[in-house]
UniProtKB/TrEMBL annotation:
Family: Belongs to the peptidase A1 family.
Species of origin: Elasticomyces elasticus
A single GO BP: proteolysis
Active site: 105, 286
PANTHER family, A to Z: ASPERGILLOPEPSIN-1-RELATED, BETA-SITE APP-CLEAVING ENZYME, ISOFORM A-RELATED
Protein name: Peptidase A1 domain-containing protein
Top-rank taxon, per record: Eukaryota
InterPro entries: Aspartic_peptidase_A1, Aspartic_peptidase_AS, Aspergillopepsin-like_cat_dom, PEPTIDASE_A1, Peptidase_aspartic_dom_sf
Pfam families: Asp
Length: 398
């Protein structure tokens, strides 16, 4: 599961334990192709609750209409809805010799996996990391992550070899799950998560550990990685280089604020149908979140352009007729306008009739900042760049 099972236990700490230096195998750049995973249905309000829970530790509070709608849907009332959409982008990673398919998440900083320590009742169908074959236990180190929908995972920590696209970290912190929630149990395509946010929000106690990227970045040709998600098909994560064939025009860079541990930046004004929607402001680029969460005024102004749209208490968010004309969404970043096609904002049916659809844009009520998830990112080519004195993000059209 990529898009809805998001993760970021937002724990700040003054000390960060760095893993042993990475060893570059054969080259100083590498590419990881994503795997188009099977479909696991997650209705709109459930996706929203996962995001509110993800950012709860920085004050996000879900509106009651969202939590109530999500609670009803989690009971299985909409489980029969078979709609397919881009919810998972998984990448093959070798962890201690076992190949696992992991969700790469720029909104969190933990590398955790299903393991042989996970009870069989919770891990059926998953590939599992066996720490006994190669891992070195970090005595007394634990981790515990809470996710949306009351899902989560926890366990112990090992140092082991992790290989991504030909680059080897010889002593990477690997968080082996001893307990996972039902939501993870059901998503048998996903064997864990590889966080790509800043190591300051890693959840390991008593001492935080570094992300895989922070471990290997010193060995790369360039200290950056790029994200090229695709609509309806697999994309790529490229590390150490920028593939000029994957974007058009020029790359527009903006500075990143790292205070909260995220790839956080300031976005400008939004428009649709040549009409101003207002300013977006403080935003996070998060591959681990599916939807776009925008300021309330921007969101309502956007849906005012869609005939029949409504902010539904029953659905837990904005819905509209599935056959509605959904306008493209435009957002200014670094003085340049970037476009999300309207078809991406037609997220998924909101009911069993298939007549009403849940919007891929929802208000960021209770979150405090904008989150640009995969609805936005799969329309972009994005550079997560640490080659300069301060981190920056680069955006270009695909």
């Amino acid at each position: 599961m990529h898009t809805f099972i998001t993760s970021a236990a937002l724990v700040a700490s003054a000390s960060v334990a760095f893993a042993a230096p990475a060893q570059l195998v054969g080259r100083s750049t590498f590419q990881v192709k994503q795997i188009a995973a099977g479909k696991v249905y997650r209705p709109g309000p459930v996706a929203m609750m996962q995001t509110y829970n993800k950012y709860a530790k920085v004050g996000a509070v879900a509106p009651s209409v969202v939590s109530n709608a999500a609670a009803a849907l989690q009971s299985g009332s909409v489980a029969a809805n078979p709609e397919q959409y881009d919810e998972s982008y998984l990448c093959p990673v070798q962890v201690g010799g076992q190949t696992l398919n992991l969700d790469f998440d720029t909104g969190s900083a933990d590398l955790w996996v299903f393991s042989t320590l996970t009870p069989a009742s919770e891990s059926t169908g998953h590939a599992k990391y066996n720490p006994k074959t190669s891992g070195k236990a970090k005595s007394g180190y634990t981790w515990n992550i809470s996710y949306g929908d009351n899902s989560g995972a926890s366990g112990t920590v090992y140092a082991d070899k992790v290989v991504v696209g030909g680059v080897t970290a010889t002593s990477q912190a690997v968080e082996a799950a001893t307990s996972v929630s039902t939501q993870f149990m059901q998503d048998t395509d996903n064997d864990g998560l590889l966080g790509l946010a800043f190591s300051t929000i890693n959840t390991v106690q008593p001492q935080q550990q570094t992300t895989f990227f922070d471990t290997v970045k010193g060995t790369l040709a360039k200290k950056l990685f790029t994200v090229d998600l695709k609509a309806g098909t697999a994309g790529t994560y490229d590390f150490g280089y920028i593939d000029n064939s994957k974007y058009s025009g020029t790359i527009t860079y903006v500075p990143v604020k790292t205070t909260n541990g995220f790839w956080e930046f300031t976005a400008g004004a939004a428009t649709a149908n040549n009409r101003s929607l207002g300013s977006v402001g403080d935003a996070i680029a998060d591959t681990g979140t599916t939807l776009m969460y925008l300021p309330t005024a921007v969101t309502s102004a956007y849906y005012a352009q869609i005939s029949g749209s409504t902010n539904s208490a029953d659905a837990g968010g904005y819905i509209f007729p599935c056959d509605a004309d959904v306008p493209d969404f435009h957002i200014a970043i670094g003085g340049k306008s970037f476009t999300v096609p309207g078809e991406y904002i037609n997220f998924t049916p909101a009911d069993n009739s298939g007549e009403q659809c849940f919007g891929g844009i929802q208000p960021n009520t209770g979150i405090g900042f904008t989150i640009l998830g995969d609805v936005f990112l799969k329309a972009m080519f994005v550079v997560f760049d640490q080659t300069t004195s301060a981190p920056r993000l680069g955006f270009a059209a695909q």
